[in-house]
Amino acid sequence: MSLFKTKHLSIKLTGVLCLLAATGYSQAQLIHSIHPTTTNNMKNQAQQVVTEFLNAVQVADIEQLNALLHPDVEWSQPGNSRISGIKHSSNEVFQMVGKMFELSSNTLKLTDIKSICVSGNKVACLLHWNAAQPAGGILDVDNIDVYTVENGKIIKVEVFTADEPKEEMFWGD
User: Fold this and answer.
1) What angle do CA 53, 57, 63 make, to 5 degrees?
2) Closest of 161, 138, 169, 168 to residue 76, by C-alpha
3) Which residues contact 129 (CB under 8 A, 6 or more apart)?
4) Where are the bilayer-spanning segments (predicted)?
5) Distance of CA 64 to CAs 13, 57, 70, 106, 142, Å?
6) CA distances to 28, 105, 113, 136, 159 from 62, in Å
7) Distance CA 144, CA 164 (A)
8) What averages of pLDDT result for each successive group of 10 residues across the chain (173 residues)?
């Protein structure tokens, strides 16, 4: 095929994709309609990365956690406690987790991965957490975490808690 025909075909394809996008098709729908296995591979990779990450959380494998988090990960922790807010790097995430272990006297545990749902490169997980403090504070809560994965790394995490007042009380101001 000549260079002219290749460029002409590329311009036509780009025009069709823009038209489909303008009519409400998402990027994932467009990619899937052009190449269905690309979407499935993206879903499989995202689920695998998050599953490996959660398994590493359960066994406190810091090396694996560090390998799966992008250095510039954005992590949103809910509420108004000492651990809440947006973290802008894996270093800030590890500092937050260190504070969580300190405040829970090293009892914080991911006790159950109840559900993992995938949509493109996003993975939503229903998780159960437990922790106890020497003074009697108990954390027993479900969270929904939404992970965004790109190129085999978690680049964004948004945490939703089922009981924000309980978490704020546990983690303190």
Assistant:
1) 75
2) 161
3) 108, 109, 110, 111, 139, 140, 141, 142, 143
4) none
5) 41, 9, 12, 19, 24
6) 32, 18, 19, 28, 20
7) 12
8) 44 41 44 51 89 97 97 97 97 97 96 97 98 95 98 98 95 89
